[in-house]
């Protein structure tokens, strides 16, 4: 295709396509990236140069993170061949649940390398326990296994392995049927919607999230956890709508989510996913950035308080959104400072986050040659090679 043909098929301006191809522009709205991916029949992760494997560092010296090991844990060949049962005794339910809590904490902090080391063994242990135990212990093991599969799905998606992530979600949905946690089906719908969003399957993402939200819609006197689960689904659907530039739908879903957050009166984190007044505030900033309303995004960001209630990766994403808004307004120095705040919160997460990498590459090209701040950021993200 010519640039003109691609622009027409993606419903974008030729100028945007030309600047992206010639490297004169490193960043693009996620709605534009999804439009280009559809026009080229590929995944958005392929277009943005998303990291496809784990980094190794001193923090993961006790073992090397491995995409292959995670694939093997999610899709073991022994189950296809009817292999022998594990000769070792499975871990206790208490040990499994403790391992899951530890993995969830690491995930909230964005320590991807450690997840790559620990998660394959957690999946294998939980599956062994689910096969070996009976009664309540079997149901509890399936609950751990469900969440482990979902963490595997989000991890694989972050590395651009969306098809493997979908396999993990299929296995999670099967494990739910034998689990003892009634909230896991909602959690799975949220995770699957996120996986579909990253794949560029935006209609499917919105449909999955809203279908489950309709099923669990709470009342005015519902428990905070029920309101949080419902609100999480609304924000997932709003993200998919934002990337389809359906701004009216985004505003309606955000309004409903804010109502749930207001009724809660505080922030909750459920299986590493936060919801409450703070998270709806940073979601609004994200949507305003995506809708190219940068002045409104900057104003909304100033109104967000209590950031400490959110996991480190959510705080980092908020600061990246601030940086995107400042960059759009031509305030590169303020964008760089926002990125430094993000790095303080989740330095390893930033190295895997494709939007951050593209933004810093763009800032580096525009910055004076001796701008130590942006050059330092680029160097720490491995963008100086």
From TrEMBL:
SMART domains: HTH_XRE (SM00530). Transmembrane segments: none annotated. Coiled coil: none annotated. GO terms for molecular function: DNA binding. This is Helix-turn-helix domain-containing protein. It comes from the Bacteria. It comes from Streptomyces jumonjinensis. Residues 1-47 form the HTH cro/C1-type domain. Pfam families: HTH_3. InterPro entries: Cro/C1-type_HTH (IPR001387), Lambda_DNA-bd_dom_sf (IPR010982), TPR-like_helical_dom_sf (IPR011990).
């Amino acid at each position: 295709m010519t640039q003109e043909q691609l622009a027409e098929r993606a419903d974008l301006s030729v100028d945007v396509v030309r600047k992206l191809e010639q490297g004169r522009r490193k960043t693009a709205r996620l709605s534009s990236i999804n439009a280009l991916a559809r026009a080229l029949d590929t995944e958005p992760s392929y277009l943005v140069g998303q990291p496809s494997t784990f980094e190794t560092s001193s923090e993961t010296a006790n073992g090397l993170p491995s995409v292959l090991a995670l694939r093997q844990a999610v899709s073991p060949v022994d189950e296809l061949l009817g292999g022998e049962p594990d000769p070792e005794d499975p871990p206790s339910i208490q040990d499994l649940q403790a391992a899951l809590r530890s993995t969830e904490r690491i995930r909230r902090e964005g320590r991807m390398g450690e997840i790559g080391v620990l998660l394959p063994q957690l999946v294998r242990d939980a599956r062994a326990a689910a096969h070996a135990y009976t009664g309540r212990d079997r149901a509890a093991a399936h609950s751990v296994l469900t969440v482990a599969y979902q963490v595997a799905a989000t991890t694989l998606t972050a590395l651009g392995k969306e098809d493997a992530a979908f396999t993990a979600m299929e296995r999670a949905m099967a494990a739910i049927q034998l689990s003892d946690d009634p909230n896991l089906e909602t959690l799975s719908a949220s995770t699957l919607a996120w996986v579909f969003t990253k794949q560029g399957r935006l209609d499917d993402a919105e449909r999955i999230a809203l279908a489950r939200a309709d099923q669990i819609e709470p009342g005015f006197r519902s428990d905070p956890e029920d309101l949080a689960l419902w609100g999480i689904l609304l924000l997932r659907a709003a993200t998919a709508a934002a990337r389809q530039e359906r701004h009216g739908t985004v505003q309606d879903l955000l309004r409903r989510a804010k109502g749930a957050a207001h009724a809660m009166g505080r922030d909750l984190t459920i299986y590493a996913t936060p919801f409450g007044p703070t998270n709806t505030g940073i979601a609004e900033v994200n949507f305003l950035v995506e809708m190219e309303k940068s002045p409104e995004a900057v104003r909304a960001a100033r109104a967000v308080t209590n950031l400490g209630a959110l996991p480190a990766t959510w705080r980092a994403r908020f600061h990246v959104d601030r940086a995107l808004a400042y960059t759009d307004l031509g305030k590169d120095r303020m964008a760089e400072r926002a990125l430094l705040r993000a790095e303080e919160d989740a330095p390893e997460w930033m190295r895997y986050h494709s939007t951050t990498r593209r933004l810093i590459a763009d800032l580096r090209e525009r910055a004076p040659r001796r701008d130590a701040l942006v050059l330092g950021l680029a160097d720490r993200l491995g963008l100086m090679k």
